[in-house]
Each structure stands twice: as structure tokens, then as C-alpha cells.
Write a structure and sequence with these properties.
mainly alpha, 12 helices
């Protein structure tokens, strides 16, 4: 048996190579800037493979990569405040997963492109929530982030913008974010598994693409410090914007 025997019928070795290249680029962005990997990966990868397969692939990779960070985050996080936001994700993730499972691939790609573009604008704006902490707002932010995660694994910007704007120590904010996404990823794993989005084929893809993503993260981390943070962020923003443009379904006849 060859590698092709374990892949989905609609995924060729050429597509696997493209996914690996995209994983390396998005991993590099994550390594040197700390963000942007999901936005880049989903916008590009969903243009070469089915959005459902791509979202499941990214979920498995992130779930494995984030697991070692959870014990330390559990000790340092404000677990009570994080639990309130997690309640929103408990509702948002299944809703996003449902839309991912029933929508046509092209429709999903348009939604992903619009989501990524909107989240990029959010990042560019430098928005941080600096108002009072309300339970209903925390649940709403968690629900929005969970919905984006369930639909396209792009729930980072809303939750990051919210937590980094709170008057708490950066180490606690980071721990809260890591802990939230640990719970959100778990909800996504359950939702994806029950809807059949996670399959043997997606796990095989994760075993192939995951190491390439890890190499990209390591490479990006090695570049950190060789240029200013401003330059790195601009490069990452540019990569996300390029991913949005090249991933648009309307350009399929030109670019693909």
C-alpha cells in the first residue's frame, strides 16, 4: 500500500504538497509573530481542498500543538473568568460546526474569505476592549470566537483582542487565552467527530502536514529578533491579505 491509499479520494499527492507548503508558510508566520497561522492556512488551503477537510486538519494539528501548554496555563489563568467565556464557546462551536457540515464548499469558502478579511481588519485596527467586564459580554465574545472556530478554526482575533485589553497581568491574559482555546479545541474535536468531519483520512493528513507546520513554526521562531516586531507584523498582515485574495473562489479560473 502507498500513501495515496490512505488519502481521501479527492486529495491527490499534488494537493498534499500544496497543503504542506501552505502549512510551512502559516507556521512560519505563527513562529515569528505569534498569530495569523489559522487565518493564512484556512484562506489558502480551502482553495485547494475541501473546507471541511482543511478545518479538521488544522484542528487536529492545533489540538496536538497546544496540549503541552495547558498545564502551565491552568496554574496561571483566572479560571473563573475563563469559564464564563468558555460557556459562550460551548454554544458557538457546535453552531459553527453545523454550518461547516451543511454548507456547499464554495459557499463556505466565501464565508471563510469574508471572515478572514474581517478578522484581518480587526487586527489592523489594533482594537482592544477596555471597558468594564460584564458576564453577558464575556459569553458573547466566547460565542463569537467559538462560532468562528467551529466554522473555520479562525476564532483567535476576537478573544485575543478582548483579553489583551483587560486590566490584568500579561502572563494571566496569555494563560487565559491558552486555556480558552484548549477548551474550544476540545469542543471542536467533539463536534467534528460527531458530525463525521474527523476521519481516518484527516488524521493521516495531519500526520503528514503537522510536522511541516512544526518546522515552519521553528523556522519562524528562529527569525524572531532579527527584525523589529513592527516589520514582522506587517509581513504577517501582508501574508494574510494575500491569502484572502488568492483564496477567493472568483479567481479559481485564473489562479487554479
Amino acid at each position: 500500500m502507498t500513501l495515496a491509499d490512505f488519502l481521501p479520494k479527492d486529495v491527490s499527492l499534488t494537493i498534499v504538497m500544496a497543503l504542506c507548503a501552505i502549512a510551512f508558510v502559516s507556521g512560519t508566520a505563527r513562529g515569528f509573530s505569534g498569530f495569523g497561522s489559522a487565518l493564512i492556512f484556512m484562506a489558502l488551503a480551502s482553495s485547494v481542498a475541501a473546507p471541511r477537510q482543511v478545518a479538521a486538519l488544522l484542528l487536529v494539528i492545533d489540538f496536538v500543538a497546544a496540549a503541552p501548554l495547558l498545564p502551565d496555563a491552568w496554574r496561571k489563568a483566572d479560571r473563573k473568568a475563563t469559564a464564563v467565556i468558555v460557556l459562550g464557546a460551548l454554544v458557538g462551536v457546535p453552531v459553527g460546526t453545523y454550518f461547516l457540515s451543511v454548507l456547499e464548499p464554495v459557499t463556505t469558502r466565501w464565508i471563510i474569505s469574508c471572515f478572514v478579511a474581517a478578522l484581518l481588519l480587526l487586527l489592523l485596527s489594533g482594537w482592544r476592549y477596555r471597558g468594564k467586564d460584564h458576564a453577558w459580554l464575556s459569553v458573547g465574545i466566547g460565542g463569537l470566537s467559538g462560532f468562528c472556530s467551529g466554522l473555520a478554526q479562525t476564532g483567535g482575533p476576537p478573544i485575543v483582542g478582548y483579553w489583551l485589553g483587560r486590566p490584568i497581568a500579561p502572563i494571566v491574559a496569555r494563560a487565559n487565552i491558552v486555556l480558552f482555546f484548549g477548551a474550544s479545541d476540545f469542543f471542536s474535536m467533539v463536534s467534528y467527530a460527531t458530525t463525521g468531519l474527523i476521519s481516518r483520512e484527516s488524521l493521516v493528513l495531519s500526520l503528514i502536514v503537522g510536522p511541516v507546520y512544526a518546522i515552519g513554526v521553528a523556522f519562524g521562531a528562529s527569525l524572531f529578533g532579527r527584525a523589529s516586531e513592527t516589520i514582522f507584523r506587517r509581513i504577517c498582515y501582508g501574508l494574510i491579505a494575500l491569502a484572502v485574495i488568492t483564496g477567493l473562489p472568483v479567481l479559481d479560473g485564473i489562479l487554479r
